[in-house]
Design goal:
Length: 278
């Protein structure tokens, strides 16, 4: 397992990469463009090459790209759908330029059309665009907290989508906080064991490519997406200890998305995780 953080790019990619390297990040996630905009600036190839080379030099891998939050392949609104598809395709291409093997996307919201309809549209959208995606970049669906009409809060819903594709085409990013908010007990050792058994039975642990490690400000089952620092929230440390100590593949990334990203908290949270691994 390789531990890392979601890295803000404010102040420059290189400066941030050096900063996180200093406190022992082995992998990073970042936005390839504006996380709250539809438009991605044209790629500046020399700059991207420089960034990718620096990551290689510092042995920070894998690089993980998080999609813009606006992307929703399950939306019933035609215009949003078109924009979402376009931006996802651009993000997949951008990931290839970085040599990033993973792009993380939330499963989306059905916007009142119903979960069944939303999931079907999501599957169709992926099928329709998959052939154009670059080799070596895998789309990962992230589980959600399940607020409103969000899809993918349960392993069953994720499985509906995942099972429609070969294992190497589509994977899962499992967020502990989202799972907790959706009712899964990632807060205790027994709970984590049960969650992983369930995940394995319903989805297959082979499909799990990335962990998002976040504590929760809100109660289990609250369906509210509120991240907290590791050990400072409602989940506590016991579940994280159990989760970290699983026999994960050596190169499996686990990434913090805790509050105040880019501050001293990143280092603190990473140190907490390392202590749990000892
Ligand atoms: Zn997440």
């Amino acid at each position: 397992m390789r531990l890392g953080v979601h890295m803000p790019l404010k102040g420059g990619f290189a400066a941030n990469l050096w900063r996180v390297k200093e406190y022992g990040c082995e992998t990073v996630q970042f936005f390839a463009g504006n996380p709250t905009g539809w438009k991605m600036a044209a790629p500046r190839l020399p700059e991207i090459e420089k960034r990718a080379n620096l990551a290689r030099e510092l042995s920070i891998y894998p690089l993980v790209i998080h999609c813009a939050y606006l992307i929703n392949l399950a939306t019933p609104k035609a215009e949003f759908y078109q924009k979402s598809v376009r931006l996802l395709n651009e993000t997949m291409q951008r990931a290839a330029l970085y040599g990033a093997p993973y792009v993380v996307m939330h499963a989306g919201s059905h916007g009142g059309a119903g979960a069944e309809r939303g999931l079907e549209q999501l599957i169709e959208a992926i099928w329709g665009n998959l052939p154009g995606w670059p080799a070596g970049v895998k789309l990962l669906l992230e589980n959600t907290a399940g607020s409103g009409s969000a899809l993918g809060a349960t392993f069953e819903e994720l499985a509906r989508v995942l099972k429609a594709f070969p294992a190497d085409a589509l994977g899962v990013c499992l967020d502990t906080m989202h799972g907790w908010a959706a009712g899964y007990d990632f807060g205790s050792a027994d709970g984590v064991k049960k969650c992983l058994e369930q995940f394995d039975r319903i989805l297959g642990l082979k499909r799990l490519c990335l962990l998002h490690l976040n504590d929760a400000k809100t109660a289990r089952g609250s369906r509210l997406d509120r991240h907290e620092h590791i050990g400072h929230g409602r989940m506590g440390l016991e579940g994280f200890r159990e989760l970290l100590r699983q026999p994960w593949p050596a190169e499996m990334p686990a990434i913090l998305e805790t509050p105040e990203m880019g501050s001293h908290w990143d280092q603190k949270n990473l140190e907490t995780l390392r202590r749990l691994l000892e």
